[in-house]
Amino acid sequence: MRKRTESLTFPKDPLATMRELQDLNASHRTETSPAEESESVNVLPSPAGHPLQEAILQLLAAPYPPTLTRGPFTVTSVKIHTEIWYRVGLAATLTGRTKQDILAEALRTYLDTLCRTATNAQEAHDTETSASRAAD
Fold it and tell me: What local confidence, expressed as pLDDT, does residue 19 receive?
């Protein structure tokens, strides 16, 4: 019995085909305003001594284990906007790193920034509280 392989055709110019697919993908992307792109997420609802918030900040401030790149790992599905995934792919191609490594580094950076921002807000709140008590 002979297998049918007519559907398995390869483009003569793969680069041109790739550009065509990228153009098609670009035509489906939604335009975002610069205000939306620069919008930052509100880090925490309030800086003042909430016990759960303080406990989470202590956990976030703990150093990462030295075996972070060797596991254990959690496999997950995350919904990411197509434009972001596209750019992560471009960054992976540019740097020679995997998308997974890029995302892991971005998440570590985000968590470190979150922790620093919350800690600074807590310190500012503590300073303000101390100053108002001293004034009384």
Answer: 74
